[in-house]
Every structure is written in C-alpha cells, then in structure tokens.
C-alpha cells in the first residue's frame, strides 16, 4: 500500500465518493439531511485533498494515515451506494442514517488528527524542507475553514457567538475554595446541574472560566465543553445552532422551539460517548425555564453549570460565591492600582506617583478596599482609575465617596463604579463615549470599528479615527471595557481594527444605561429601545408636543417582532443602531425622516444571514456617511437601484453579497470580511474613483479581482488578507499610483506577482506573510523607490535577498508564523 502515500491516488478515491454523494442527493429522497451534510463536508475538503498532494511532495507523510484516508473514502463510497438500495425497512433506514452520520464525522476527525500528525513530523524534517511549516500552516488554516464555516457563523478563530470557552483570566484571587468544591461536583457522576449564585461583579464568570481551563476538567470533558452566554433576552434556537456549529456539524434551519429541542437532543446523544459540560453563563430569573430545555435524562454523564445573580432555587441549593475577604481584596486592588513593570506589578513600597511623591498610606488603601465591599469588579475598576495618581487624589476620592450612602451590596458596587466614571469628568468626550456603550445589547461583543465609526460622527472626531482609537484604549486601561482580539497579528501597519472587539461587564453597561436614563425623555441624548414581542413603550408611540432630542437611538427587537412601526420623528438622531433576530427584517419607515443621520449600524443576531427589505429608504438620507451591515443578505431586487450618494464608508461582515451591492458613487472606504458568498469583486466598484481604502479579509471564495481595479487612481490602501482562493493580482494594479499599503498575507493561491507591481511608485509597505505559493518576486520590485517595509515570514524573506543592494531603504521584517492547533480544541 506504499503507493497510497500519493495524494493522487487518494484524490481519485475522493472524486469517486464525491460523484456518488452528489448523485445521491439528486436522485433519492432518503437520508437527505445526512447526504447533504456529507456533500457539504466533501465540498469543503476538496481543496484540502489537493493540498495534501502538494504537502506529500515536501513531507514523507505517514503511510498509515494515507492508507486510513484511502480506506475511509472507499468505504464511504460503498456505504452511500448501499444506502441507495435500502427498502422500506424502517430499522435498516435508521441504521444507515447513523452510518452516514458517522462517516461524515469520521472524515472530519481524520483531518483533525492528520494535521496534528504532520505537524509533529514536520519538526523532524524542518531543516531539510524549508517550506514544510508554511505548507502545514496553509493546510491547517484550510481545515479550520472546513470546521468553522460549515455553519456559516464564524468570527475569526473561535469568534463571538461561538461556544468556545473564553481565555483564562490572567490574575485570579479568592476562588480556590469554590473551584475545589465545584470541580468535585463536576467530576461526581451523581450531580447533574449546579448553580453559582452571587450579585453582579462578584466574579461568577471568572470562576467558571477558570474552572473550564482546569487540567482535570479538560481531561475529563475533552472537546465536549460548551460555554454559552444566556443573558436577559435569550434566543434558545440560536444557542442550539451555535452548539451544533461548535461541533463542526452542518447547522440546520430551525423553524420551531420544539425543533430546536430535538436537534439539541440529537447532538448530545451523538457526542455523548465522552462526558459533556454545558456552561450557561448569566441566566436571569425570568429565563429560568430555559434550563429545562437544555436537560435530557437519557444523556448520561451530562453536566450543566449555571451562573446567575439569582438563586434559581428550583434547581436545588446554589453555590454561593461570597465577596472577597480583606486579604484577597487588597491583592486584587493593588494589582490594578499599582503601575506595572512588564507582566508583574510592584509592591506598594515601590510605587511611584506621576510626580515622584510617596505612595498612599496603608490606611488609605485599606479604607478604599473596604468601600469596594469585596467586589472584584469594583476593586479592579477603582484601582485602575487611581493607578499612578497622587495620594491627595486618592484622599479626595475617598472623601467624596464618604458623602454617599450605601443601601446594599449592589448599590455599594454601583457607587464605586460611579466614582470611577466621575474620574472622567475632566475628559468629557471620553465619558460621552463610555455612555454610548449602553446602546449595544447585553453580553454582545461590540466591533471596535463600529464604535470608531459612531464616535467619529457623533463626537466630531478626526476622520481617520486616531482620536477614537485613543479613547478606546484609554477606557480599556481604566478597566471600563475589555478589548478582545480574534487574531493575534502584530503585522498590521495601518491601524486595522476589524479583528478587535469590545466587551463590557453587565454592571458597567447598566451604569451607562442608568446615566442615560436621567432626565425627561425629550431631553436625553441617547434613547435605548428594547422591544420584546410588539410592546412599545408609551413615549415611543405618544405624540408629544416637545420633539425628542436624542442624537443616538438604539433599537433591539426579538424573533417575535412583526415590524409594525408607529410613526415617529427623531430629527436630531445622528447614529442609529438596529439589532434584530428574525430571518427577514424590514427597515423602519421612520428612518426616511432622519435627515441628520450619519451612521447606521444594522446587526442580525440570528445564525444565518437575514434578508433586509425596504432598503430604498436609505437613499433619501442626505447626510448618511457610514453604514455597517452584519449577517445580512442583500435583497433579490436590484440593489444598484438604491443609491447612497453621500456614503463615505461601507462595512459588510458575514453578509451574503452574491446579489451585489448598493450604488455608492462617492465611497472612500469599503470593508468586507467573512463574506463567504463573495467570489468576485463587483466591477462596479472600480468605477468609484473616490475610493481610498479597500479591505477584504477572510473571504475564502474570492478568486478574482477585476482588471479595472487600476482605474482607482486615488486608492491608498488595498488589503486582501486571508483570501485563500485569490489566484493573483491583475496587471492593472501597476496603475495605482497612490497606493501606499498592500496586504496579501495568507493568500496561498497567489503564484506570482505581476511585473507591473513595479509601477506602484508610492508603495511604502507590503505585507506578504504566509504567501506559500510565491517562489519569487519580479525584478520590477527594484522600481519601488518609496518602499520602506516588507512584512513576511522567513521563507518569503529569502525572496528579497537578491534585490537587497538595489533597495537599500527597505527593511524586511520577519513575522514569526508559528503553527497553532488550538482551534482544533474549539
């Protein structure tokens, strides 16, 4: 069987199976869901099979693995053919249905194991085969795409909306006893459901995150750990779809709640060979009934761990998470309040204030810690707000604090957070930006680019977003928000923020909402409208003689909303945030009256892209400059009929753009990410000569750029990163006389650069990390007189050595391109 090491032989067997499956889908009504799922899997791994052939030329891949793949595919072909001959015998139908499902799973599992094996073996031959690591990385990313994109709902590697356990907290105190007790229960076969109860800000989520990263817990539950955030307005169907997607299975359209329950039960039964741990974080009392939908008695060794501000006593006595004791509270406070040195922090005796004066007295530290009532959130936020400041400011803060009264623990924590917010009084724009965060749904990751777009227009900041980004990082430095990057890429050179997200603790969000709700309705700067069912608040429907003065309007609707909007005039609104969870969504008719609207953010929180209708009303908005669509399907009617004359920036994230885009004649920037249906960039974009920036990332099916792209003579930034099927750059790219930044990182299929690239007379920075298909750069690169930086991996760095003498100003920066297989565990 030695010849089976050849990818060509494996490819032939794969092709035979693929043909049989495709024919079966078309010719039989039996096993349709199983066969379609299998067809989907084969469609995704088709390019991977080709890549294995290339990889086998670099590595002596283990014959056992190739033989196993050959046999698996051959067995699959026989199994599918037999399934077509199954008669009306119900038992046989059931058996073959399970066998087809197992075949689907076995194929995916093979590739998970295979990439680990070749990753191991590549270390032994790395010295001899210089491109092996990069070839493996290509295959690794392609396989990641197979597992992550079968359900269409993927944000980076792991992403939000997934069931991946969040990263373990860096600094944890006071949880050892709780971790020990809960771990014992989770490993005890007699315990099925546990509730961790504590007020907000006491560290419930930190506790369960830390627990999920415990080695014994991971060893017991392996890849069957799901981390699901429930929140105040849960969508059970979407949670189930995310769980199915998390296991790399084909995600179905789910029409009813009972269908969702059935799908969840089927999933748990299928994966129940190993123990299962489901973490349901942030369950509210009104959502208590949702726990029953997740429980199935027939699934053995299945644990549900719940966190809640409420006791949920119907499920037994909860595990009470107590506030931190004085010693642990002091440790946590000092960790936040003490200037850092590298990854460690200085003791109080080594603290230096900004003016070099002495540190605060121990008594002052103890009194502030006491006021925080043992709340980890309050200790962290207050500590960060005082970090590096003069002791006199600490004293004045405590003095002002003492004037307030504490009703209960939550009020005390709220008061701590309020004082930290008051610390921004000398920075009014920063405080206003913090208040804007309450306009996004609870427990949702907020795209940093959405915030930046909003702040630029709402607070009249500089158009390039430098000030907005500074505000974002200042809020993070004060622990008022958390910044989470879905990719760890230090090579970005133009301030690219598409892979950065903002998370905010529920209490901080509630603080912002509380601040926004002060005063009369018609005087408020921000209005948040959370519609459940079709119940509008009275102020929304009442025709008040005083006009509403809100500049920021946020509207969230659930899956039962019927899109029956009352008439409303909001003439002052400059930013509109729409969040919904339905399969289709009609834009509110009152939008056409928002004559001052500058930024529009529309997010579908369902699993599949939702069709957006009534798009034409956007054409009547004279000041609309920025629009962001997430998980949206452009309607079937000709989208070019909608003209957004003054739009300057358009962002499409996980959208279906197969039907085209709106007409945007004066666009300056377009951002397209994770749009799997995009195969070719519309030629119409090349007529928008005002375009200065194009960013297309992780659109894996994009294969061609229009030849007319050279018409974009004002283009300064062209990013095409992680577009794995992009075959090359058009010759006309040489006409982009103003292009200063070009990124083709991880575009594996680009085999060569056109010689016309030498015409990029203003190019200063070129990113080409992970371009494994490139074996040379054209001689014409010596004409890039303005080029300063080339960002690439070790293999691509060698390509520039022959031109070093003629490009003396160029710095070739090598970015470490380590292979990571962490995504397999996700």
Automatic annotation (TrEMBL):
It comes from Punica granatum (Pomegranate). Keywords: Plant defense, Repeat. Residues 1-149 form the RPW8 domain. GO terms for molecular function: ADP binding. InterPro entries: Apaf_helical (IPR042197), Leu-rich_rpt (IPR001611), LRR_dom_sf (IPR032675), NB-ARC (IPR002182), P-loop_NTPase (IPR027417), Powdery_mildew-R_dom (IPR008808), WH-like_DNA-bd_sf (IPR036388). GO terms for biological process: defense response. Signal peptide: none annotated. PANTHER family: PLANT BROAD-SPECTRUM MILDEW RESISTANCE PROTEIN RPW8 (PTHR36766), RPW8 DOMAIN-CONTAINING PROTEIN (PTHR36766:SF3). The keyword Repeat applies. Pfam families: LRR_1, NB-ARC, RPW8. Belongs to the disease resistance NB-LRR family. This is Probable disease resistance protein At5g66900 isoform X1.
């Amino acid at each position: 069987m030695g010849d089976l090491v050849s990818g060509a032989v494996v490819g032939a067997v794969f092709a035979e199976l693929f043909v049989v499956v495709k024919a079966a889908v078309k010719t039989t009504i039996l096993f349709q869901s199983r066969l379609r799922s299998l067809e989907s899997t084969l469609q995704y791994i088709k390019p991977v099979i080709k890549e294995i052939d290339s990889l086998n030329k670099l590595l002596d891949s283990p014959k056992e693995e190739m033989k196993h793949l050959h046999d698996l595919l051959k067995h699959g072909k026989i199994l599918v053919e037999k399934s077509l001959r199954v008669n009306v015998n119900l038992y046989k139908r059931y058996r073959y249905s399970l066998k087809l499902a197992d075949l689907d799973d076995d194929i995916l599992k093979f590739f998970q194991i295979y990439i680990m094996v070749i990753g191991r073996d590549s270390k032994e031959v790395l010295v001899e085969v210089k491109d092996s690591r990069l070839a493996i990385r290509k295959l690794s990313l392609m396989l990641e795409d197979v597992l992550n994109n079968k359900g269409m709902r993927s944000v980076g590697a792991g992403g939000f909306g997934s069931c991946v356990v969040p990263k373990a907290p860096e600094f944890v105190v006071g949880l050892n006893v709780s971790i020990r007790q809960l771990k014992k229960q989770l490993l005890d076969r007699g315990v099925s459901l546990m509730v961790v109860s504590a007020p907000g800000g006491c560290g419930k989520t930190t506790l369960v995150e830390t627990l999920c990263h415990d080695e014994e817990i991971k060893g017991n539950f392996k890849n069957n750990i799901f981390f699901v955030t429930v929140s105040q307005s849960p969508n059970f169907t979407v949670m189930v779809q995310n769980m199915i997607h998390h296991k790399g299975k084909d995600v179905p359209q789910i029409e009813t709640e009972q269908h969702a329950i059935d799908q969840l039960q089927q999933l748990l039964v299928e994966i129940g060979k190993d123990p299962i741990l489901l973490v349901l974080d942030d369950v509210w009392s009104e959502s208590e009934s949702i726990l029953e939908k997740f429980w199935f008695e027939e699934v053995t060794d299945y644990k549900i761990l719940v966190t809640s501000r409420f006791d949920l006593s119907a499920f037994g006595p909860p595990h009470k998470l107590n506030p931190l004791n004085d010693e642990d509270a002091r440790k946590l406070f000092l960790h936040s309040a003490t200037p850092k040195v590298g990854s460690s922090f200085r003791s109080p005796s080594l603290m230096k204030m900004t003016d070099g004066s002495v540190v605060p007295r121990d008594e002052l530290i103890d009194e502030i810690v006491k006021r925080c009532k043992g709340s980890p959130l309050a200790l962290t936020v207050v500590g960060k707000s005082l970090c590096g400041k003069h002791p006199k400011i600490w004293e004045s803060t405590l003095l002002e604090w003492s004037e307030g009264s504490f009703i209960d623990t939550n009020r005390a924590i709220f008061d701590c957070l309020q004082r930290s917010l008051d610390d921004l009084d000398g920075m009014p724009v920063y405080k206003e930006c913090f208040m804007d965060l309450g306009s996004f749904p609870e427990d949702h990751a907020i795209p940093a680019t959405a915030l930046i777009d909003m702040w630029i227009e709402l607070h009249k900041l500089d158009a390039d977003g430098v000030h907005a980004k500074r505000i974002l990082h200042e809020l993070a430095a004060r622990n008022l928000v958390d910044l989470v990057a879905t990719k760890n890429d230090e090579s970005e050179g133009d301030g690219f923020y598409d892979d950065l997200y903002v998370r905010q603790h529920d209490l901080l969000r509630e603080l912002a909402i509380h601040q926004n709700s002060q005063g009369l309705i018609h005087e408020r700067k921000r209005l948040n409208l959370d519609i459940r069912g079709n119940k509008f608040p009275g102020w929304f429907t009442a025709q008040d003689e005083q006009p509403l003065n809100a500049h920021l309007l946020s509207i969230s609707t659930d899956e039962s909303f019927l899109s029956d909007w009352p008439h409303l005039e909001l003439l002052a609104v400059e930013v509109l945030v729409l969040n919904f969870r339905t399969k289709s969504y009609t834009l509110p008719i009152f939008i056409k009256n928002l004559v001052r609207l500058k930024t529009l953010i529309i997010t579908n929180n369902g699993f599949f892209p939702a069709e957006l209708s009534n798009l034409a009303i956007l054409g009547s908005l004279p000041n609309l400059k920025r629009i962001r669509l997430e998980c949206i399907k452009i309607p079937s009617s000709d989208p070019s009929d909608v003209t957004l004359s003054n739009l300057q920036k358009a962002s499409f994230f996980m959208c279906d753009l197969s039907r085209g885009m709106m007409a945007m004649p004066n666009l300056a920037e377009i951002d397209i990410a994770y749009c799997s249906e995009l195969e070719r960039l519309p030629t119409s974009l090349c007529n928008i000569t005002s375009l200065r920036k194009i960013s297309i990332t992780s659109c894996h099916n994009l294969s061609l750029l229009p030849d007319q792209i050279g018409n974009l003579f004002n283009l300064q930034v062209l990013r095409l990163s992680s577009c794995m099927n992009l075959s090359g750059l058009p010759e006309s790219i040489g006409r982009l006389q103003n292009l200063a930044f070009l990124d083709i990182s991880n575009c594996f299929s680009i085999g060569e650069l056109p010689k016309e690239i030498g015409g990029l007379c203003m190019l200063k920075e070129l990113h080409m990390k992970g371009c494994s298909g490139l074996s040379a750069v054209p001689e014409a690169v010596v004409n890039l007189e303005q080029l300063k930086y080339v960002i690439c991996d070790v293999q691509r760095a060698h390509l520039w050595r022959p031109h070093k003498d003629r490009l003396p100003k160029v710095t070739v920066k090598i970015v470490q391109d380590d292979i990571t297989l962490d995504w397999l565990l996700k």
